[in-house]
Amino acid sequence: RPRSHTVTTTSSSFTANLSASSSTLAYDREFLRTVPGLLMVTEIVLGLLVWTLIAGTEYFLYPAFGWVMFVAVFYWVLTVFFLIIYMTMTYTRIPQVPWTTVGLCFNGSAFILYLIAAVVDASSVNKELDNHNYNSWAASSFFAFVVTSCYAGNTYFSFISWRSRTLQ
Description:
Transmembrane segments: 31-54, 60-85, 97-117, 137-159
Shape: elongated
Number of domains: 2
Main location: membrane
GO molecular function: structural constituent of myelin sheath
Domain MARVEL: 31-163
Strand content: under 5%
Membrane topology: Multi-pass membrane protein
């Protein structure tokens, strides 16, 4: 006697939502035209200059330049990471994260540690220490102070954004 076979299929709403949300990746071109966006690009370009100027020397012989390298590379990587987050508007997909607070903490810590690194860099530059690397270290010191001022500006704009969110 013949049996009847019934096959029932169901679709998950999770997979439908996953495919719908992953197919539309946002891209915010206007972010680079804002002052925080321009400051972030400047931080990336000049921060790269700071650590490449030091990396091209025998910095490992002097612990002070090792500290400057750590701060410069660490915040360069994080700034690139945050630029990608802002450019792709990933922060809109993760609303559980308080992005204004994260931005304020990031920029504030970058400003403080970069200021310390810039002062250490400038005070460690000595022609008698190593005449061959003097120009690279002096240039890295100058650009470290410029990057510090960029992080100070972004800290200000992050504070304004954070304050406007907390007052609502």
